[in-house]
Amino acid sequence: MNTLLTGENGYAIKTFLDQVQRDIIKDHPAATLEIRLAEDLGLEDLPMLLQNSSLFSDHKLVVIKDLGANKSLAEELVNYADKVAPMTDFYAVESQPDKRTKWFKSLSRRMTVKDFPHLTPALLVNWLKDYAKSESATINQSAAELLIARAGTDQWRLSQDLDKLISFNPEITKQNVALLVEETPRDTVFDLLDAVVAGHGQRAHQLYSQLRRAEIEPHQFLGLLSWQMHNMLIVRANYALNTAQLSAKAGLAPFVVDKTRRLVRRLTLGSIKYLIELILEADYDMKYRGLDADQRVKLLIDRIVRKIMS
Hints:
Blueprint: E1 2-6, H1 10-27, E2 32-37, H2 46-50, E3 60-65, H3 71-77, E4 88-93, H4 102-110, E5 112-115, H5 121-134, E6 138-139, H6 141-151, H7 155-168, E7 171-172, H8 174-180, H9 185-197, H10 201-213, H11 218-237, H12 243-250, H13 254-264, H14 269-288, H15 293-309
Parallel strand pairs: 1-4, 1-5, 2-3, 3-4, 6-7
Helix pairs in contact: 3-4, 5-6, 5-7, 6-8, 9-10, 9-11, 10-15, 11-13, 11-14, 12-13, 14-15
């Protein structure tokens, strides 16, 4: 079996390969395992890895990771993809391949391509429930949604936070998530926008100072703010849809839709677009006019408050 694994979901790729390894060892206890980084290999290593059988086992697993880091190896691998030894299972891994390259096009024709994208919020909720169940624990819908809201969508962090919650209490509740899982900068930016929409400029500035103490740089703040504005624009443009419909259409988690709906209920599409223009103007001033980044962000917050309250 020759397979090319792609996609940005490193957690899913590792989980898949771990299962492959367990299955092979179960069926072939003496199997040889070769897990290598592409950058550590030379072209002369490929025959030994892929075409030679082990002296101690009739089965072999070969995994070459980060294939794109060694272009010459990736190109040479094309000549071996059809000649891998019969009892060798070969997996090549490249999370973000340039699909325009000759080697990728050639390998994708000669190997099975399996892609691992990041899970959607809805699928993440189901994954959290299954993960908890596998550890003899439970997590309800609202707790899972809050965990994603706080920890983000990266499965590495989610698994770590879920392990912590299970150790505290196998019956995971929304209250325990709020107690044990720290908010992400994205949540703080949402709280800041919530304060702005309510006309609480002082509270918004306090939250920005909190982000800066957490070492979030001004340009990072603008990026997070832009992401929130993008969601606001989508929700406002589709306000007539219910939460389930909008969640499915936009690929947003239901809790994100509900939170954003509260933010935009008093805003028009035109006003949201104007706020986005203010953000772009601030970004330009910071990048090309050399204005003090912190002072420019604080001015942006004040201008957004004035627009909302006008």
